[in-house]
Design a protein that fits this description.
The protein is of the alpha/beta class. The chain has helices at residues 16-20, 34-45, 55-58, 62-71, 88-105, 117-121, 123-129, 141-148, 156-159, 187-190, 253-267, 283-296, 313-321, 336-340, 349-361, 379-392, 409-417, 445-460, 463-473, 475-485, and strands spanning 8-12, 50-54, 76-81, 111-116, 134-136, 165-169, 172-174, 221-224, 227-228, 249-250, 271-274, 301-306, 324-332, 365-372, 396-401. It has 2 domains: 8-174, Rossmann fold, CATH 3.40.50; 199-506, tm_1862 like domain (pyruvate-formate lyase- activating enzyme). It has 20 helices and 15 strands. The longest helix has 18 residues, at 88-105.
Length: 507
């Protein structure tokens, strides 16, 4: 117990069991809360007293995490609502609401603010349906620092000067000023890395596929940003909700390498996720960071995101030498017509096939991301996407159902058209019992969900895939995948149909 109240307790809520069902125990990754760590470190760097609680990593119930936060007697509790990828902010919102309600019911005389991607996308609604005093629209740091400088947190006149702050006044939701994003030139100074020392670093666990080479060594694990945002405008994506518009800002490689030095030397990290929404994009940034890693002889096992049209051959060998062993590609759909409908690149099928082959030839494994149920999808186009996935035979594949995540253009369209959306925020999880995807022009949401689950089983029980995995990683990983495919996810909204693969797709 500190001798004086802390200024801020940062709280990262989580509810893995509701979000992942049977996959929550050991199969899903458990990642450090990057934004909570960034904000905590930045606020601390300005001279304020901070603490950080990661509910999921600490294995706490709602009651336990709320009680611990209140016992620290901070002036402010900041509930940071982000997830392991941008869309996961929404599915975490239910846990955030539960924590806020428990704090409100307790003996706590400070204030609560909710920060994150989902609150930025729907600030007024978040303030309306969450038992919080404040909501932040934007990245969070400018708002938090402005709020900490206010002497009386009950004075509306003072609160109006805080950028990005939403609060209540006479029963109305008020937002007086917007918060500007941090300029790229100021990132290193203003957001000087993660508060690793405030996190339970021994708790974090890598994805199972990330460690196919060493399934028994998924810990320790860390994830970091080397950039913020994305310059693209895919209509299903909500990554830019906290930033206001598509953009890309980079920390300098020279700064990033200091973070990696801390992770390697202090915490013994080898398994590492570069969480940038678009890491393999800026050639100079990627090249310089890889060179710095190689020069220092770090032995990382890294995975990172890339786009089909952003992978450059001359960088692949350097990335592999730096320990980038996995690249995650947003392939989404075989149909260029379907991809064009959501503004997802103007490359064709042959370009997809070629880039996967080139990445594999460089010794880098591929995680292929596919989405079923985009607005123009029908039975045929979804089957063709699965056929493409089987043809590419990536070392790992994610199959998603299209969801209208708050902050994405697709959400605005869904609201405008009156499409049926999930009843509560954790139902936006891809793996939850209550998952309800969007309908397409041709299919109901439940039909899309059933196809997604069926396609997942087809891929991971396919003999060609399992043979490739056995050759690259050994029988132990094949046995692990057999165990994984025996886990079924109960689905309330599933609408089974007689899906059939062509005979040659099983070959």
């Amino acid at each position: 117990m500190p001798s004086r109240p802390l200024d801020v307790v940062f709280l990262s809520p989580g509810h893995h069991r509701a979000i992942y069902q049977g996959l929550a125990g050991t199969h899903a990754a458990l990642e450090p809360p990057i934004w909570a760590g960034l904000l905590a470190n930045a606020v601390r760097d300005q001279g304020y007293g901070v603490s950080l609680i990661d509910q999921e990593a600490e294995g706490m119930t709602v009651e336990q995490v709320a009680l611990q936060a209140m016992e620290l007697r901070p002036r402010l509790i900041a509930v940071v609502v982000y997830g392991q990828q941008p869309s996961a902010s929404t599915q975490t919102m239910t846990a955030a609401q539960e924590v806020c309600a428990r704090v409100r019911a307790g003996a706590y005389d400070g204030k609560v603010i909710v920060v994150g991607g989902h609150p930025s996308a729907l600030p007024a609604r978040t303030l309306e349906d969450t038992e919080t005093d404040f909501v932040c629209q934007g990245e969070g740091l400018t708002t938090l620092l402005g709020l900490l400088q206010v002497g009386d947190l009950d004075d509306p006149a003072s609160l109006r000067s805080v950028p990005g702050l939403w609060f209540r006044e006479d029963g109305r939701s008020i937002n007086a000023t917007s918060a500007a994003t941090i300029p790229e030139s100021d990132l290193t100074r203003v957001l000087p890395g993660m508060a690793w020392d405030l996190l339970p670093m021994v708790a974090y666990r890598a994805h199972n596929w990330h460690c196919f080479d060493h399934l028994d060594r998924r810990r320790p694990y860390a994830s970091i940003y080397t950039s913020l945002g994305c310059p693209y405008r895919c209509s299903f994506c909500c990554v830019n909700a906290p930033f206001g518009k598509p953009s890309l800002r980079l920390w300098s490689p020279e700064f990033v390498i200091t973070e990696l030095e801390t992770l390697a030397s202090v915490y013994g990290i080898t398994n590492l996720k570069i969480a940038d929404e678009m890491f393999v994009l800026n050639e100079r940034h990627v090249s310089r960071l890889c060179d710095l890693i190689i020069e220092r002889g770090y032995r990382f096992n890294i995975w990172a995101y890339a786009r089909v049209d952003s992978v450059q051959d001359h960088l692949l060998e350097r990335m592999k030498r730096a320990g980038i062993n996995w690249l995650c590609l947003g392939i989404e759909s075989k149909s260029r017509y379907v991809r064009d409908g959501v503004l997802k690149g103007r490359y064709g099928e042959q370009e997809i096939v070629d880039v996967v082959r080139r990445i594999k030839a460089a010794g880098i494994h591929v995680m292929g991301n596919y989405i079923f149920g985009l607005p123009d999808d029908d039975d045929t186009s979804m089957q063709e996407t699965l056929d493409l996935a089987l043809e590419l035979n990536c070392e790992m594949a994610n199959f998603y159902s299209a969801m209208a995540y708050p902050g994405s253009p697709l959400y605005a369209l869904a609201v405008k058209e009156g499409w049926l959306l999930p009843e509560q925020w954790d139902h936006y999880s891809q793996h939850a019992y209550e998952t309800l995807p969007l309908p397409t022009k041709h299919l109901a949401g439940g039909e899309v969900l059933s196809f997604r689950d069926w396609a997942w089983q087809q891929y991971f029980t396919n003999s060609g895939y399992l043979s490739m995995i056995r050759q690259k990683f050994g029988q132990r990983v094949v046995d692990h995948l057999h165990e994984l495919t025996r886990i079924t996810l109960p689905r309330r909204h599933a609408a089974p149909r007689q899906w059939e693969l062509r005979e040659d797709a099983h070959a």
